[in-house]
Design a protein that fits this description.
Number of helices: 12
Radius of gyration: 20 Å
Low-confidence stretches: none
Structural class: alpha/beta
CATH superfamily of the largest domain: Phosphoenolpyruvate-binding domains
Strand order of the largest sheet: 6-5-4-3-2-1-8-7
Order of helices and strands: HEHEHHEHEHEHEHEHEHHH
Shape: globular
Number of strands: 8
Distance between the termini: 29 Å
Helix content: 40-55%
CATH topology of the largest domain: TIM Barrel
CATH architecture of the largest domain: Alpha-Beta Barrel
Mean pLDDT: 96
Number of domains: 2
Strand content: 5-15%
Length: 290
């Protein structure tokens, strides 16, 4: 894609877009082959899967960029990514935008927490001053090369300062140039509706599980007027349960026989990663007939 950002904006104009959460290249391939119109790279997924540690700013820009580049190299749909707090101050934010745009993303979101950040659905978060976040957004907007690259401002203020303060922060972030707003940790459909009425820019909703937000369907978010809905850790949590069950049964029985019906076969895996295309390329480059 010449402009992943413009591709995502075009998809958003068609209606509320569901972005499945992915955390590495093979999860991206799976989501894309099931028909996703775009993807969301989850920072928690990168940190939990890649490092095996909590989502408390332990993964750095280079690790986020590596995952972003791997994902965008194997799918042909727009991808946005978590970018935590921008990995530092305003100069770090500028570099974050440059590097992640270069990795092929359609956009990123930056949050207004004080680093080290915490999961958006946990208590005990600390926010930076609104003006400091405004400076970060200005740095991000000025640093993007493609005007359609989305700079999405996430505010975690709902759980710290209340809904009204979150709305006021969002307004300041839009005035600073944010392309969209991500209100994190809202606790009801009514709060999502109130936030929508307060903003004229696109809004992103986080439909994560086991957090402060109740389960709300894509159709409902569409009726509420949200342009993007992310499901950041849904597949990751299902996968983790499957991993636990698999290792438990394998260690208990000493055989994978009972697990075979739950597996993707070798041929199904090869089809997913287009193994035959690599074989065909080897033969073509060697001057061999197909």
């Amino acid at each position: 894609m010449n402009s992943p950002g413009s591709e995502l904006r075009a998809v958003m104009k068609q209606g509320t877009v569901l972005l499945p959460g992915v955390f590495n290249a093979i999860s991206a391939v799976s989501a894309a082959k099931q028909g996703a119109k775009g993807l969301y790279i989850t920072g928690a997924g990168i940190t939990n899967s890649g490092l095996g540690v909590p989502d408390i700013a332990l993964a750095d820009l280079s690790e986020f960029k590596q995952v972003a580049a791997a994902v965008t190299s194997v799918v042909n749909i727009p991808v946005i990514s978590d970018a935590d707090t921008g990995f530092g101050g305003v100069q770090n934010v500028a570099r974050t935008v440059i590097e992640l745009e270069r990795a092929g993303l359609a956009g990123i979101h930056l949050e207004d927490q004080l680093s080290p950040k915490r999961c958006g659905h946990l208590d005990g978060k600390t926010l930076i001053e609104p003006q400091d976040m405004v400076s970060k957004i200005r740095a991000a907007v000025e640093s993007k090369r493609d005007p359609d690259f989305l700079v999405i401002a996430r505010t975690d203020a709902r759980g710290v300062e209340g809904l009204d303060a979150a709305i006021e922060r969002a307004k300041a972030y839009v005035q600073a140039g944010a392309d969209a707003i991500f209100p994190e940790g809202l606790t009801s459909e009514a709060e999502f509706e109130t936030f929508r009425k307060s903003s004229e820019v696109p809004l992103l909703a986080n439909m994560t599980e086991f957090g402060k937000t109740p389960i709300i369907t894509l159709d409902t978010f569409s009726q509420l007027g949200y342009e993007i809905v992310i499901f950041p850790m849904t597949a990751f949590r299902v996968m983790l349960k499957a991993l636990d069950d698999t290792y438990s049964e394998l260690l208990a029985t000493g055989t994978q026989q009972g697990l075979l019906p739950k597996m993707r076969t070798r041929s199904e895996l090869y089809e997913a990663i287009e193994y035959s295309e690599y074989d065909a390329a080897d033969k073509r480059w060697a001057g061999q007939s197909q």
